[in-house]
Amino acid sequence: MDDSRLRPADVLRVGGAGLRTRPLRVFLSALGIAIGIAAMIGVVGISASGRAELDRTLAALGTNLLTVAPGSTVMGGTATLPKESVAMIGRIPSVLGVTAVGRVSGAKVYRNDRIPAAETGGISVQAARLDLPEGIGSTMDSGTWLNAATEGYPAVVLGAQAARRLGIGAAGEGVQVYLGGQWFAVVGVLEPVALAPELDSAALVGWPSAESYLGFDGSPTTVYTRAEDDAVEAVWSLLAATANPMSPNEVKVSRPSDALAAKQATDAAFTGLLLGLGGVALLVGGVGVANTMVISVLERRSEIGLRRALGATRGHIRLQFLAESLLLSALGGVGGAVLGIAVTGLYAGTQDWPMVVPAWASAGGVGVTLLIGAVAGLYPAIRAARLAPTEALATT
């Protein structure tokens, strides 16, 4: 028999036969590879799905929302925005819309009037304009937003987190909260607001209602401004001086979409760390494959001697054990890829994200396992090929 007569199919068949004789050992060795590959593909897939969700959110809500808020005074205190700031910002060319909320100092909200005063749940009370949902791109989870009929009465819309903290599943008839020392009807609950997450933990009341019932002074604390897409930077440069002409240095201007992008960058750095840990797990799995193959050579010395005596060359023996190592790694790689994709799909489904697993991650993962299998099986294959037939047959 010579090398030219050993077809690839023969190599795979002989390699597979060697693995089938020790199924438990093969399973455990392949499991180490699978865990490493699953971790790496899962991390890449979840990160890619998160980026796809961010892109989808920004595409739906836009990157042209700017927020104006009071900064600090020269003495280090908290500044205030003039009551006229909303109207003044609305006069800036290229501004598509402007809305605002104002924090109601001293007002607390509780589920009922028997809750201790200190247990506020971290819920703020904000006066809100009627056009707030359009300005920030928010939607209702239940109930309705404030309207011209309810904004002057004790009615409240809760942010998503505020509703959960108060134990309110949905707005409806008879649902009330104890706010500012009196009862307010819960007319709506918001979905989480991606571009204004501070409103998720807020109780929103109408601007006139806040002034009448809660002593609100009418000063906005956050002004949300929509600008034309090609004029965002120009509008940004004018906002501080327009909102507070007397003290523009006491005004903070930001773009919420930048905060989302920064969060994604932080997540990307964390993804790199997790990929490193997955690589360590994969390396450990490769060591396990090498250990399995070395033990296999020691246990099968008589088989090697018999094959050599029947005409198998050193090249045939090398190919046999190298094929076993590659098949073992391929089993772990394919299994790990399937597991990693499944984990990504499961997590993306629970978060309501689009599922994205880059093709390069799956193909690259399987390719890396084959490379590890080749490296891990090279020494055992060479060692097996160097055994003399007489020495191997003499092994008992």
From TrEMBL:
A GO CC annotation given for this chain: plasma membrane
Compartment annotation: Cell membrane
Gene Ontology MF terms in the entry: transmembrane transporter activity
Sorted UniProt keywords: Cell membrane, Membrane, Transmembrane, Transmembrane helix
Domain of life of the organism encoding this protein: Bacteria
Membrane topology of this protein: Multi-pass membrane protein
Domain ABC3 transporter permease C-terminal intervals: 278-388
Protein name, per record: ABC transporter permease
Domain MacB-like periplasmic core: 27-231
Spans traversing the lipid bilayer: 26-48, 273-298, 319-347, 359-379
Record organism: Actinorhabdospora filicis
UniProt KW Chloroplast keyword: no
Family: Belongs to the ABC-4 integral membrane protein family.
Presence of keyword Transmembrane: yes
Principal subcellular localization: membrane
